[in-house]
Amino acid sequence: MKLNVTSNTNIAVLPLLSNIQKQQYSPVIRWLPRSFAVGEGINVSGLLTEEASVAIAEGIIPNLEPVCRDLFKTFTDHNGTYNATQFLPVLQQVVFNDPTIFEQFRKSPDHRYILVQNRYMKVVLIRWEPGKFSSIHGHAKGGCVYKVLQGALEERRS
């Protein structure tokens, strides 16, 4: 299976499949919901990792905190089984029309920033250079959703 995705127009939901190979062009942001016990409280204060907060403050990455908060809020707005598809309405709203917004991120030696990591979800901003492939890997029980923020992505599954 081959999937072509271009920035700001498509969102992909990755089912739990083996033998996944991806070729991505920077940057990509991935949202992975994590399982949690019913009745656990949800607190959005301190949502971003320190790494992300510093990178945003220094202008290395764009301020994605509002997006992360909206993603996290889906846990309180969503009834039923939690999985990656609950993030789709939020991701459909995310658009970056300014091509310079990722300029500093492109220049940074770091290719990956964990924006949020807690017992509910993990949000990662990733910059992939052309020709980069990921190894075969799995995702949490809830699956994975990703959106290309700028550039293009080609996914190959064997």
Kindly give the count of domains: 1
Secondary-structure-derived class? alpha+beta
Helical amount: 10-25%
Strand content: 25-35%
The tally of beta strands, per DSSP, is 8
Overview of the structural elements:
This protein has 4 helices and 8 strands. Helix content is 20%, strand content 27%. It has helices at residues 50-57, 65-77, 88-93, 103-107; strands at residues 2-6, 11-14, 20-24, 28-33, 112-117, 121-126, 144-148, 152-157. It has one domain (2-157). It has a 5-stranded antiparallel sheet. Strands 1-8-3 form a 3-stranded antiparallel sheet, with no helix packed on it. The longest helix is centred in the middle third of the chain and has 13 residues, at 65-77. The protein is of the alpha+beta class. It is globular, with a radius of gyration of 15 Å.
